[in-house]
Amino acid sequence: MHKSKKYIAVLLVLSGLSACSTMKDVSNTVKDSLFNYEKVKPWQRGELAKEDMQLVDDGLMTYADDHIYFSKEAATGGKGVGGGGCGCN
Amino acid sequence: MASPCECLIACDDENLARQLAELAMAEARRIEQKFSRYRQDNIIYRINNSAAEAIRVDQETADLLDFSAQCYELSDGLFDITSGVLREAWQFDGSDRVPQAAVIKPLLQRIGWPKLIWNRPLLTLQPGMQIDLGGIGKEYAVDHVAKCLKQHAAEVNVLVNFGGDLVATGPRLMAVPWTVGVDDPSRSGEKAVAGVQLSKGAFATSGDARRFLMKDNRRYSHILNPKTGWPVEQAPRSVSVLANTCIEAGMLATFALLQGKNARRFLEEQDVVFWICE
Amino acid sequence: MKSIQKKLALATCSLLAHNAQSVMAAGAEDWAVDASFLHYEEEERITVNKMIGTLVTNISESDKVKVDLVFDTMSGSTPSGALEGAGSFTTITTPSGAGGFSASSGSTALAEFSDTRLGVSLDWEHTKKRLYRINYGSSISVEKDYTSFGLNTNYAQDSSSRIVTYTAGVAVAFDDVRRSTGGTPEPFALYGGGETLENGTRVTLDTIFGVTRVFNRRTLGQLNFSTGFNEGYLTDPYKLISRTQLLDISDPSAGFDEKDTYYESRPSVRQRSSLYGSMAHSTRNDNVLHMSYRYYWDDWDIVSNTLDFRLKIRYENDFFIEPHLRFYDQTAANFYYFAIEQEVFGPNGFPEYGSADYRLDEIDGTTLGFNIGKTFSAHGKLRVRVEHIRWQYKNSLFDVNEALVFQLSYKKLFE
In this structure, what CATH number is given to the domain that contains residue B80? Predict the structure, then answer.
């Protein structure tokens, strides 16, 4: 019941976020990312090679978040395997 | 180097100029002897006749192999120092002797950088494989000689030119650049198509208009794709690039040729000045 | 897009540096150190201070070693699962090491604790023939009431064009669970009574299979399927569950009376699976959008959705601001009860398993955060982030928990 509301909220906030930079971001993002497949050559990987573009771009932030949510929520994992367990409350 | 080599030295001390010229000659000769595939007394010969044994290579060779590995990577496998065995099938002498596909196919088994084991400083080839640093050697020699001269006499600017691949370490005279002519490959040696003012930097050309095969009105360029064993289609006759070092310029020009009809697009994506002769 | 020219320039540099003493390929022999301080604070509940340090170094051109160190101090109080005492709501004090709950004032709803944790992990990544990477990892984590030891290995293989990467990984962990005084309580024993059983042990096995794909010059996506299980003592030795009796059986809204309180009891196996999709996209004006979604399910009947968005807005001078939004929901575990109701289970009956741990309730969580960062010329990168997390519980004594997170990190590269 509240789920649909939540997804609308996501969209609203997302567009709000993008408005911080450019409104065009939203439509371009969808267009550029999902509907634009190309075979990328090694010399075209300049952008992809940047640290910001890594799926885990800040290891310590990910590590800390994983730990917080692991200790407060029942669902865990998904990103990878390994790392230390804990008996956190 | 199988081509005219010159070294222009901007200095009015004849003694020093002579010293530098001798140094340049010595270094150029050393590199040629060390990496030429026509000799039987060098590291390349030992590697190519190693019968799948691991060969321990010296630091300079190791650096060139590391560099070759990176070029393989950057060119998506199109620049491959193991592709020389294709010469067994292709002779670009202007004739119409295009090899049969059946001749080329078995050669591909013996080509491919990932097939050799490079574990610095140990190199192991598979049986039948060969390496050839000819695609890097001349440009490397140009940069290396220029560097040696600069180390010997930092205040003297030089222009090292080995068969059209060249580097300038600084302006000819106070703020007066060197002038370099870009050859038109179809009329080699006759007329420069462009003059480049070069103070500091390098210029290199890849491509050779005289090396091709012609059969049934189809021109086969000598730029071979190591993945297929066949010439790259619609490759420009030559590509010239300006860059900071001769190796960079030479590699970018070579990578561009290997792109065939996409050569121009490839170079436009790089931050360099270039000339293409179609 | 100029990458090839820049990389070539870099490669050339190392080639021409031949006369220098040591010549290694670009990238080899650098060190990266990343250190972080994190403060986590729940309103009137738990406070955690965490220090994390990571060191990565290339020990050869094809081998990379990573060492992680983490030190946590935790203190505060957390809901035990028990309902508040008949009298006024007060917390009982359980100084760590004093042995569980020594109910003195009648309420056991909140349990106080304090502990420290030290964790170390070591990873080794080896690249083979440029397209294959294999990673071996080990980790150990020690608290007063918990010890964990884990091993993992991951394998990644790039397609020859490097457009697609396939990954597979497996991890095992062996945990020892106990109260800070040692041992574990007898499940469903009356709180304060029952035998003290030996320490609980649990084994965890996780596997992951993933595909990462380059969609275009500005987009990268990943899809993972993970599955695994926990087996052994999965109960929480501190959590409690109360028995209740309705005051008026014909009118449940009239309230209830709290009867006895027991130690909780959970199944000894849990099978978990998840599908996780994530992507990074660099927008036309060079901002970077990170999006991920996870669908999780397990045989405790917990099903969960997690959506995560970050937009890194990059400014000149290597400065960035990154808003972060996360939405989480989960269903309750099939043995989650607000309390053991006498009307359902009788005055002395029990369900097969029962826990009132708020983390097994139906939960909705929302995170809103900001991360700002600046890269300095000398390979240094500073980040500061502040996040607010709010969890809402459907059927727990405490229906909301809010937390504030502050993290300060600094990364430096050495060559």
Answer: 3.10.520.10
